[in-house]
Protein: CHAT domain-containing protein
Organism: Mesonia aestuariivivens
Amino acid sequence: MIIVIISIDPSTKFLFDIVDRLKSNSIVFELIEIHPNTDSYKSCLDNIAKLPENTTILFLGHGQDDKIYGGELLDDFPKQPLVKRNEMGIFKNQNLFLLACDSASLIKSSFRIAKTNKAIGFGPLPTEIEEVESDKKLANEGITLETIELFKQAINETVILSLLEYFKDESKDFIFLKDYLNLHLNKRINKAILEDENRNLADLLFNMKNDMVIY
């Protein structure tokens, strides 16, 4: 069983490309949208708690090293924690893919609580100019809005290709998904350097690959 959970807010709209590509490739999954209201948050958690063991859960949204977030509507409903570090046990005995900032740290620090079968997470994934401006290292490297948009496209491209390859053979262990991600991120890094001549994009993709973990 495959579940895709996506947090609804303006900054995650681009991630629906992943949802659409899975649909267009006839991947059967259930979609849970976390809208910016308390009822939607609660409904999502209730649905997660009822999932059978060994479900593959793909979370697409925002995170920090101690939480993942639900939906947001700018000033009307600021994003709230959906699952905090000490609540990660809700994913017990599941295969978990967290496409969210600093989810690698969250997985590392909570794996004894979560007791997932396997979990894949990432480091910082700067997809908004504010995230670049608040990071001195990225700001000094001259990361522009154009580079961020290219990075968002590259995230979708590599994640989609990796998921499609993984879902082709359901007998494969979840660890193979990380192998596919490494493969396609390496290809995209090479393209960014050799064809696009965009070192900044290559660096962002390298960091994405280098910070990725599986537990």
